[in-house]
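Researcher: Next sequence.
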Amino acid sequence: MPIGNSYSYIFGPIVALMGIGMMVLVLRWAYSRGSSVVAVPGKSGPSDSYGLLVCVASPTNYAEGEMIRRTLEHAGIKANLAQTTDGPKVMVWPVDEMKAAAILRG
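Model: Next structure:
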């Protein structure tokens, strides 16, 4: 009992070439200029353009800001260090603003 007919030897390579062609088209689309699916790096903006987050500290450099952010994180406050056009800023949610200010003062 034959497994295939005379077309079975050409059917496999044709399917493989069609699969490779589809992968080439998808990769060309994914890495084309202007319509890439890869995220664009974030841009710095003024300190008031970060939505609901409020600034609680303005460190002089990024390393100092990271130490402040970790201090707040250790106290249980979610804090972000943002590189704004005005320099680095440590930002928290408005509900944590008073608690963060008290921790940074003392």
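Model: The chain has a mean pLDDT of 86. Helices lie at 8-30, 62-74, 97-105.
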